[in-house]
Amino acid sequence: MESGSGNKPLVSIVTIAYNSADTIRDTLISVAQQDYPNIEHVIIDGASKDNTIDIVRQFPNIKTIISERDNGLYDAMNKGIRHSKGDIIGILNSDDFYVSPTVISEVVQKMTGDHAEALYADLVFVNRKNTDLVFRYWHAGKFKPSHFLYGWMPPHPTFFVFRDLYDQLGVFKTQLTYSADYELMLRFLYKQKISVSYLPKVIVKMRMGGVSNASLSNRLKANKEDREAWRLNQLRPLFFTHWLKPVRKIIQFMRAKKVNL
Q1: CA-to-CA separations, 86 to 10, 40, 46, 60, 246, in angstroms, rounded
Q2: Residues 55, 28: contact at Cβ < 8 Å?
Q3: 164, CA 20 to 30 Å: which among 99, 188, 240, 260?
Q4: How many angstroms separate the CA atoms of 109 and 144, rounded?
Q5: Which ranges of the chain would DSSP assign to H, the alpha helix?
Q6: 15 forms bridges with which residues in the sheet?
Q7: Distance CA 173, CA 117 (A)
Q8: Do 97 and 15 contact (CB within 8 A), yes or no?
Q9: In this structure, what CATH number is given to the domain that contains residue 235?
C-alpha cells in the first residue's frame, strides 16, 4: 500500500535479525496479523547463517528484505530507518512480538488523536520458550521530562516516531554499543521536548536475554554508556540518576505477577 492510503498513515515496522530462526516467526506472524491496513514490514538481517531468511520469505506481506553484514545492532536499525517509507516508524526486534492484532491500529489512533510526534506503551519480558510466562512488567507510566532524572526510560520496542523526527533530530549514535536507544529517547523526549503520547497497556512481549542484560559486565558497560548519553547531549543528570535505572528493573520483576494481559 502507498503512504497515506485511505487517509491512514503508512507505518513501517523495522525488524533487526541475526541467526533468529528460533524466534523470528512469532515476530513476523504478529505483524502479518495486524488489522491495520497500511503497514510496511522491513527486515534487516545481518547475514544470518541459519534459515532466518528462508522463514522471512514465507511471508508475502514483506517486500523489503536486506541481508548483509552490518556494524552492530544500532547500525542495522539506522539502515532500517533509511529503507523505510512510512510516515510512522516502529522497531520490533526478532525476539519480540506484538500481543494482539490491534496494536498498530491502537498506536496510530492514539498518536493521531493526541497530535503526538511519538508514542510509547508498556512491555513485558517473557520466558524464551514459554512466552506466557512473564518475568518482568515494564509499566512505563505517563511521561514527565523530570522522570529521566530518576532513571526512567520508555521501552524502546514500544516506541513509535513520525519519521520526520529522525530526519530533523538524527538517528541512533553507533558509537554506543548498549545504550543508543536510551540516548535517542533522551535526546528526543528530554532535550528536544517532542510531543509524546502514552498508550497505557502492554503491546509487546520481549523474550528475556537482551544484550545489555546478558551479564553483570554488560550491565556495567551499559551504565557507563548511559552516562555518556547525557554527556553527548550536553545534559547534566543527578548524581544518582544512573543507579536508579537498575533499581527500576528490580521493581519490574516485582510487578510481574500483577500484569493483566
Answers
A1: 5, 7, 22, 18, 34
A2: yes
A3: 99
A4: 22
A5: 24-32, 52-56, 73-82, 103-114, 163-169, 180-185, 216-232, 241-255
A6: 43
A7: 20
A8: no
A9: 3.90.550.10
Residue 81, helix vs strand vs coil? helix
Structural domain boundaries enclosing 149: 5-258
Cell for 255? 510487578
* Contact status, residue 12 vs residue 5, Cβ threshold 8 Å: no
3-state secondary structure of 181: helix
pLDDT tens across 19-77, in order?
Answer: 999 999 999 999 999 999 999 999 999 999 999 999 999 999 999 999 999 999 999 99
Task: For residue range 223-238, list pLDDT tens digits in order.
Answer: 899 999 999 999 999 9
Confidence of residue 254 (pLDDT cuts 50, 70, 90): confident
Cβ atoms of residues 256 and 136 within 8 Å: yes
| Average pLDDT, rounded, for the chain | 92
Q: List CB contacts of 167: < 8 A, sequence separation 6 or more.
A: none
- Three-state DSSP class for 151? coil
Q: Cβ distance 146 to 132 under 8 Å?
A: no
Cα 70 to Cα 74, 201, 214: the distances in Å are 9, 34, 21
Nearest-angstrom CA–CA distance, 256 and 139: 10
Cα separation, 259 vs 132, whole angstroms: 11
> Into how many domains does the chain fold?
1
Residues near 184 by beta carbon (within 8 Å), at least 6 away in sequence: 170, 171, 172, 173
Q: Is the pLDDT of residue 180 over 80?
A: yes
